[in-house]
Every structure is written in C-alpha cells, then in structure tokens.
Amino acid sequence: MNPILLIPTGESDPDFVYATGFAVESALYIRYSAADDVLVTTALEFDRARAQSAAARVMESAAAGYEERGPYVSWPQLAAKMLRAKGLARVSVSPRLAAAYLEELRAAGLEVEVDRNLFVAERRRKTAAGAAAIAETQRAAEAAVVAVVGELAHAEIKEGVLWSDGSLLTSERLYALAQRALGEMGCTCPDMIIAGSPECAMPHFRGSGQIRANAPIIIDIFPSSRITHFHGDLTRTVVVGEIPEALRRLHATVLQALDAGIESIRDGVPGSQVHRDVCQVLVDRGYGTLTPGYEGPDGVAKMNHSTGHGVGLEVHEAPLLRITSSAPLKEGDVVTVEPGLYLADLGGVRIEDTGMVTKTGFLNFTTLTRSLDPKDYVAGTNGTD
After folding, report:
1. Mutual orientation of helices 245-264 and 271-284 as an angle, nearest 10°?
2. 43 in the Ramachandran plot: left (φ > 0), alpha (ψ -120 to 50) or beta?
C-alpha cells in the first residue's frame, strides 16, 4: 500500500480534515503507514496543529526542511525530500489535489497515483462521534429555520409582499437572521437558500430581494460546524398569508413522498429503490419527475433532482439516492431525503430531513415540524399540513 500524501485545497478540504482532524489552508500531511504519519505546518499554524490535530507527529515547516520556492512548488518539493529520506518514491493522493501540485510532485521524481476512492468508504460509514456531530449541526439548522420562520410569522402583508418593522422583508434580512442563529451555535452556512416565489421553482436559487405573500418560501439550510466540520441539511417550505389549494396539494404530496422515502430506507436497500419509491408517490398523486418511467403528464409540477445524498464532512457526499445508485445503503450512512415539486408560475415545495441508516430503518436527526404555516414553528407544534 502506498503512503498517502495530502496538500489541502483550502481550509475545508474534507479529505485533509478527515485524515488529520485539522482544518488549515496550507500544510502537508504524509501517512507513511497506519502507525506513522506526520503533519507539517507553517509557524503560524504550528501551535494550533499540536492542540487540534490527530496526527502522530506535528512539525513546523522550517524544521522539516521547507524552502520557499513559489506557489505550488514548495510543499511538493518538501514532500519529495521527506519521502526520499525514508527510501520511498510512490505515493497516493486525493483526487481533490490541485493539478499544479500533482505536476510538481511528479516533476520532483515521485510516482503519484490519484486514488479516486481515497477515504470514501471510511468517511461514508459514520462513527458514533461523527453521527453525533452531524445531529448537533442539524440542531443548529433547525434553530436557523425557526429564526427565519419566526420572522415570517410576524410579518405584515402590504400590496402582496412582506414587511417587517416598517421595511420590506427580504431574503437578505432573513439570511442575516439565520447566520446569526447558526453563529451562536458554532456553525455557518454562507450559501443557504431562502427563496420566495416564483423563483423558488429553481431548486438552487439562493434567494434575493422581497418576499411575496400567499406563495411558497423555500428555506434550505445546510450548515457546517466550525468545530467538528460536519454538516447538517434541512429544508422546509412555508407560506405567509392565504395558502392556495393547489399549493396545499403539492405540499401534501411532497410530505407523503418524504415519508415513503424514509420508510423504505434500511441497511441493504439500494439508493435507487428509495428514489423509485419517492417518484412513485409523486406520479400516483398526478405529478411527475424527470426520472425515466416516472415522468407523469405534461404541464404538471415535477421533481427535477435526486431524492437525496450523503452528509458528512461535505454536505454532498456518498451515498446518493438516485435512479443510477444500484449499490446498497449501509448501516452508518447519513443521508438526506428531500423530495420536491416545482412549477414555473407557482414556485416550489421541498421538504428535507437528514438521518442515519440503521439495520432496520432510518434514525431521523430532524425533529422540526414540516408545516406550511409559519405559526406552527413559533408554537413548536408538529403540524404536517
């Protein structure tokens, strides 16, 4: 087995964090064997690395022989020197390694294998500590959703749009509330979605400007912990004002599909089967998807994405719940289930829970109401209408 060599692509590089327990923008990690690894950092990060890293040895870069030779050159040159000192010339690297680093490692005389499966299986099966960290981050996501929906619950409707404290209530204001709630719990989510209608018919529209009344608002918050670096993922859809009957039907269907997906999850079930079960509910209720065989009639609201994905040190990681995912789910996987329906003139509805696959089912980390009514979130009820 080759030694493993990692140079982070940035502070949130998930493979580097997994291997070292340390998030850092610039460093070098070499795992010579299971019992022999070393983390090399700059002087700036040395004390923090000694306090936080799981590596057996931590070295300051000058002591390790680091020489400044310009961007993308210095760490590869040091890595080659350290490997040659042990009589080694072959290494495995992460597929996330920057191409310039890869070129420099090879130019330094190393035989480099890009291991596309590096840590995939290990990161996929969550330890008890990892699962607990994700569940804790999910609590932060719930707190952020409650902060947003609480503001929506007290908003005024003027000429079809929402106002609060004498000014327009915008996605940007709600974003700030959510970030504050997350920050107070040691988390952040710079790319969260707080999107009004009709733009929320685009599932990854982040949200911008004023919020319409009597129409769906999708809130999708997927924070990471600043301490553990594990993510959560949570989506709810609410309406301020009158809820059109067509939207109630959409929401009830998505909720039924969510329950069907959760019900089908257990160790050994292919991810594709979970997706099929979700799609079948949508089609049976008169809607559609873009999945072959589950298209439904023309002109109706459709789901244009997969059912879910793994969650861990990345918000999107293995396994996937989609039509092409024939591999079985495994005990210890943490996954989302997030069906949605979207129609251009109306907007969208998406509901998402996150939890862990067990031998017999799904341990849901999500406790928040799925209601369309913002007041239910403020009251702390478990409404599902």
Report:
1. 150
2. alpha
User: How do 28-33 and 36-41 pair as beta strands?
Assistant: antiparallel
The Cα 300–Cα 228 span in angstroms is: 42
- Please report the sign of the dihedral spanned by the C-alpha atoms of residue 112, residue 114, residue 117, residue 120: positive
Helix (H) / strand (E) element for 168: namely strand 167-168
1 Cβ neighbours under 8 A, 6+ residues apart: none
| Coil vs helix vs strand at 204 | coil
| Helix boundaries (H) for the chain | 14-20, 43-52, 61-64, 74-85, 99-107, 120-124, 128-153, 171-184, 245-264, 271-284, 374-379
State how far the Cα of 200 lies from the Cα of 231, in Å rounded to an integer. Answer: 23
How does DSSP classify residue 292? T
**Which DSSP string corresponds to 243-254?**
--HHHHHHHHHH
CA distances (Å), 120 to each of 98, 123, 222, 323, 362, in order? 18, 5, 21, 20, 21
Domains of the chain: 4-118 (3.40.350.10), 125-379 (3.90.230.10)
Residue type, 261: G
Which region holds residue 296: left if phi is over 0, alpha if psi is between -120 and 50, else beta? left
Q: Which DSSP state fits 199?
A: G
Contact present, 220 and 305 (Cβ < 8 Å): no
Average pLDDT for consecutive 10-residue bins of the chain (385 residues)?
96 96 97 96 98 97 95 97 96 98 97 97 96 98 98 96 96 98 98 97 97 98 97 98 96 98 98 98 98 97 98 98 97 98 96 97 98 88 44
Of 84, 91, 97, which Cα lies nearest the Cα of 112? 91
Integer-rounded Cα Rg, in Å, for the chain is 24
Please tell me what DSSP assigns to residue 92.
E
Please say whether the beta carbons of 178 and 221 come within 8 A.
Answer: yes
What's the CA gap between 336 and 345, in Å, rounded?
27
What token pair was written down for 99? 């191409």
